[in-house]
Amino acid sequence: MANPVQFISQVRAEAAKITWPTRREVVTTTIMVLIMATLAAIFFFLVDLGIRTGLAALLGAVS
């Protein structure tokens, strides 16, 4: 098992390697995620609407 002091120094060394995104990158990716989530919601709404309409027409024709 490693020495706790050595472990802490290794953690600090690894944390120093982290490159954080810029504010512009965060805003850009956030907007992209929101757009993609909206497009996915619209797509699944339309698919659901089509299935619901088709099922209603099929059940109406059968009964």
From TrEMBL:
<dbReference type="GO" id="GO:0006605">
    <property type="term" value="P:protein targeting"/>
</dbReference>
<keyword id="KW-0472">Membrane</keyword>
<keyword id="KW-1003">Cell membrane</keyword>
<comment type="function">
    <text>Essential subunit of the Sec protein translocation channel SecYEG. Clamps together the 2 halves of SecY. May contact the channel plug during translocation.</text>
</comment>
<comment type="similarity">
    <text>Belongs to the SecE/SEC61-gamma family.</text>
</comment>
<dbReference type="GO" id="GO:0009306">
    <property type="term" value="P:protein secretion"/>
</dbReference>
<dbReference type="GO" id="GO:0043952">
    <property type="term" value="P:protein transport by the Sec complex"/>
</dbReference>
<keyword id="KW-0812">Transmembrane</keyword>
<keyword id="KW-0813">Transport</keyword>
<dbReference type="InterPro" id="IPR038379">
    <property type="entry name" value="SecE_sf"/>
</dbReference>
<dbReference type="GO" id="GO:0065002">
    <property type="term" value="P:intracellular protein transmembrane transport"/>
</dbReference>
<dbReference type="InterPro" id="IPR005807">
    <property type="entry name" value="SecE_bac"/>
</dbReference>
<keyword id="KW-1133">Transmembrane helix</keyword>
<dbReference type="GO" id="GO:0005886">
    <property type="term" value="C:plasma membrane"/>
</dbReference>
<keyword id="KW-0811">Translocation</keyword>
<dbReference type="GO" id="GO:0008320">
    <property type="term" value="F:protein transmembrane transporter activity"/>
</dbReference>
<protein>
    <recommendedName>
        <fullName>Protein translocase subunit SecE</fullName>
    </recommendedName>
</protein>
<dbReference type="InterPro" id="IPR001901">
    <property type="entry name" value="Translocase_SecE/Sec61-g"/>
</dbReference>
<dbReference type="Pfam" id="PF00584">
    <property type="entry name" value="SecE"/>
</dbReference>
<keyword id="KW-0653">Protein transport</keyword>
<comment type="subunit">
    <text>Component of the Sec protein translocase complex. Heterotrimer consisting of SecY, SecE and SecG subunits. The heterotrimers can form oligomers, although 1 heterotrimer is thought to be able to translocate proteins. Interacts with the ribosome. Interacts with SecDF, and other proteins may be involved. Interacts with SecA.</text>
</comment>
<feature type="transmembrane region" description="Helical">
    <location>
        <begin position="26"/>
        <end position="47"/>
    </location>
</feature>
